[in-house]
Amino acid sequence: MEHILIKCEERPTRIIWQLARESWPEQTYKWPDISLGLILGCGSITSPREIAHQNEQQVEQDRRSRNVKGPTRLMQITITESAHLIWILRCERVIREKQHSDREIQTRWLRAINARLINNKITATKIKRESKYQHLVKTTWEPLLQQQGVPPENWLNDREVLVGRRPRG
Q1: Is residue 167 part of a domain?
Q2: How many separate domains does the chain show?
Q3: Where are the alpha helices (DSSP H) in the chain?
Q4: Segment 144-161, tens digit of pLDDT
Q5: Domain containing residue 30
Q6: Is residue 37 part of a domain?
Q7: pTM (two decimals)
C-alpha cells in the first residue's frame, strides 16, 4: 500500500502529490511529509501543525483555536482525495492497462477537489444553512481560492467559483 500511494514512480503518484503540495496554501501551514500513516489517520488530524512537526506551544495554541478547523479540514480533504485518485488511476493502469497523460491526471485531480468544494458549498447554502457551518466552509476553502486571486465577496453562493489552474504539459 505504501508503495502504491507514496513511493511508486509512476506518473499519477508523482503528479498528484505534486499538485496537492503546490495547491496547499503555505502561508497557512507547512505541507506535511506524506506517509502511509498520515494517509490512513488523516481523519483524526486535529491540527496541521501537529503533522508538520512544529513546536509544541504552537500545537497547543491550535488545539485551543477555532480558526484551525478550516485548514485542518482542507488538509484532510486534499490528502484523502489525492490518495483515492492515486488508487483509482493505479487500478485503471494495472487492471485495464490504461495509460494516463499528465493533462488527464491534472484534470481528474482538479475535478475531485472541485467536487468536494461544490458539495461543501451546496451543503452550506442549501442543506445546513447554519452560520457556523458556513464559516467552517469559508475557512476551509478561502486560503486555497485566494491563491488564485481574490475570490468574489459572496463566493459561497456563487456557482462559478472553482479551484483552478492551467494544466501543464
Answers
A1: no
A2: 1
A3: 2, 11-23, 36-41, 48-51, 56-64, 69-95, 102-122, 131-146
A4: 888 888 788 888 888 776
A5: 2-157
A6: yes
A7: 0.83
